[in-house]
Amino acid sequence: MSASDVKKNADTKMGKSVENLKLDLAKIRTGRAHAGILDHVQVDYYGSLVPLSQVASVSLFDARTINVQPWEKKMGPVIEKAIRDSDLGLNPQGMGDTIRVPTPALTEERRRELSKVAKGEGEDAKVAVRNLRRDANEQLKKLVKDKAISEDEERRAQDEIQKLTDRYVADIDKLVQQKETDIMTV
Description:
Elements: H1 3-26, E1 42-45, E2 48-51, E3 56-62, E4 65-70, H2 76-85, E5 93-95, E6 98-102, H3 108-145, H4 151-184
Antiparallel strand pairs: 1-2, 3-4, 4-6, 5-6
């Protein structure tokens, strides 16, 4: 393993941390309806839990309502129960063949709570990135100890890994700021 391998590995893992943050932030409600809010809802489909998107079509009915169209008629009540039991605080309503999921308006207090949740997710992602930086630096020290690279190469690689870390932390801050703006917009 060389210093460039350590940097590539750290870059890849830091990128995955940012992608995970994007997924986590997408689950936080903003007061407006979007189909992605139901992505992590699991439905009991003949004894096994599957994502909602595999048993129904999810689309927007209007700005505050999500429309769920089950592919099998008898799945309607099961899908309603799964959405109701999820931690999203949504109350689906069966309308014949379709299910309407109104997204209630958020109170100011709830917006502040969700904003704190978004910040917490961002901090967790930053901690993950910093841990990856620490691991990469430890790998570089091990390479120097094993005389695979020189101390100058180690120092240069550590500087580049620090720049990577700074870039990913800035990306995380930007994502969290965008999400907070979305949450606080009425």
